[in-house]
Amino acid sequence: LQEQESGPGLVKPSQTLSLTCTVSGGSITTNYYFWTWVRQPPGKGLEWIGTIAYSGSTSYSPSLKSRTSISRDTSKNQFTLQLNSMTPEDTAVYYCARLSGSWGQGTQVAVSS
User: Fold this and answer.
1) What is the largest CA-CA distance in the chain?
2) pLDDT digits over 27-78, tens only?
3) Residue 93: predicted pLDDT
4) Ordered alpha helix ranges (H), 1-113
5) % of residues, the chain, pLDDT over 90
6) N or C: which end of the chain has fewer CB within 10 A?
7) CA-angle at 67, arms to 88 and 86, nearest 5°
8) How far are the Cα atoms of 5, 37, 38, 51 from residue 45, in angstroms, in the given order?
9) Is 85 left (phi over 0), alpha (psi -120 to 50) or beta?
10) Strands of 92-98's sheet, edge to edge?
11) CA 9 → CA 28, 67, 91, 98, 102, distances in Å?
12) Sign, Cα dihedral of 10, 104, 33, 50
């Protein structure tokens, strides 16, 4: 399995970030596969953002839940992160991954006017 993130590298404050993870080598609907978004701000540790299960159910970090939505397109074998009301504190490398499995290479997102 391989994951590849795509999306803008720069967003303005208050805008919505939309990132897509394209999965190859397997189906995102495979039983008991959980797909997650994680980020790492500069100089800080990894932060879990949220997860979408093989069933389509979702769970989110409590600290980000009010601004986060994760969805999927099974026809394209993709899942997508939307993070609203971006601020400079959301600047980070964003990763998509399969829980207990492989990770994408990450994509840098900067929030700046």
Assistant:
1) 42
2) 999 999 999 999 999 999 999 999 999 999 999 999 999 999 999 999 999 9
3) 98
4) none
5) 96
6) C
7) 20
8) 19, 14, 10, 18
9) left
10) 10-11, 107-111, 92-98, 34-40, 47-53, 58-60
11) 25, 19, 10, 22, 22
12) negative
- State the pLDDT at residue 53: 97
44-47's contacts with Cβ under 8 Å and 24+ in sequence apart are 47/92
3: its two tokens: 């994951």
Residue 107 tokens read as 């994509």
Phi-psi region of 33 (alpha: psi -120 to 50; beta: other; left: phi over 0): beta
Q: What is the per-residue pLDDT for 103?
A: 96
What is the rounded average pLDDT of the residues 92-108? Answer: 95
Q: Tokens at residue 83, please?
A: 């993070």
Amino acid at site 13: P
Residue type, 61: S
